[in-house]
Prior knowledge:
Layout: H1 5-27, H2 40-43, H3 56-59, H4 64-70, E1 77-80, H5 87-97, E2 101-106, H6 112-127, E3 132-137, H7 144-148, H8 151-155, E4 160-165, H9 169-172, H10 175-178, E5 182-185, H11 191-203, E6 212-215, H12 217-227, H13 231-243, E7 246-248, E8 251-254, H14 256-263, H15 275-289, H16 293-305, H17 310-325, H18 331-346, H19 352-364, H20 370-384, H21 400-404, H22 445-466
Amino acid sequence: MTINLAAIITFFRYTRKVKKVTTLSEISLFSGADADFEPLANRVRPRNLTEFAGQQQLVGPGKVLRELIEHDQIPSMIFWGPPGVGKTTLASIIAQQTQAKFINLSAVTSSIKDIRQIMKQAEENRQFGEKTILFIDEIHRFNKAQQDAFLPYVEKGSIILIGATTENPSFEINSALLSRAKVFVLQALTSADIIRLLKNALTDPRGYGRQKVEISDECLQIIADFANGDARIGLNTLEMAVLNGQRADEVTTVTKKGLQQLLGKKSLLYDKKGEEHYNMISALHKSMRNSDPDAAVYWLARMLEGGEDPLYVARRLVRFSSEDIGLADSRALELAVAAYQACHFIGMPECSVNLTQLVIYLSLAPKSNAAYLAYSAAKKDALNTQAEPVPLQIRNAPTKLMKELNYGADYQYAHDTEDKLTTMQTMPDNLVGHQYYQPTSQGSEVKFAQRLAQIKRWHQEHDDLEK
């Protein structure tokens, strides 16, 4: 019996391509139950770059990501951006256009065992000359061990990895994996982008194209503003508005009054443990430093209404009062501590006005970072210079032995002098003459600068005489 090796290889390649279609159907981004039960956002998901809204800096004509997708030259890459801006949609477009095997994996439900099974399959594909693109949604949810499992397969080309994340890849993705992937930053959609998607949903047969839905441009604008850059929120809101609209003669009408009742209170984008948390507190801090009370109060409101712990904000304001104001207005620290206590006493929402009062005060107070810089300079010397012993004259001597060892000998008690100053050396020998505190000319610090200058003149007049 003659065996035709070429025919066998052709057969296996054919069966693998059939398997590719089956696997994609089972786990692809656009599979699922009956379309009637799918959310509107899934039903009208853009199928190609022409239908895709937003991110023109990446997928506009001639832009790098568009060229990569259209020429099927997909590298390993990370899509980073807030929710609802098209990360998963871009992956679904790639899945439809690529000739590679496309596998969708959720970081929420997958284990290391699942990963290794997929990697084994991808390695087999590579041996048959077939590329495998692995898309991982919420990749930041994978721990270090799970992320490490991808690394050798990415390195040898078994898989092309596409990850989607709402968190900063610098902090959430292993550096070794990140160095092998191109990061594309997706921006929040504009209101115009979302309105375009809403209008498409109203005319697309997959959406409401087969129904008669009447909704004004004003209502569409309200939905777009409410979505706050998130297409999924916009489409879900439109779906709820249509479901709750007024029906008459096979026409569904969405009214402004009904829409406003449906929307209720806006849910602000805010993750108390994610990057947005640090972005917000940074915005508050820098607005106060820039003496802009209006911006500072706005960022405070964004944080508190987004669910931030008021005590966290209060602690940061205590820090700010010394770091950025200091002795230019020493009342700032007192008020910051008082506001922190007020937050303890009454909590939210009542303590919001206490924090607002403090934020306005700190924004308008004179600014000085002299205390912050003084500690930074002293810290540098403490860490980088020889750890000199404490001079004997300023050591404590509670025991007889310590006194015999000259602890406290030659100590000068400042209150016994007329000027309340002494010629006693209090710095270690190797740091004599180092000056850490450099007062500014802002606010009350002028008085401290004058006092410091007075003390220096006194030492110039008396220290030489002592020697």
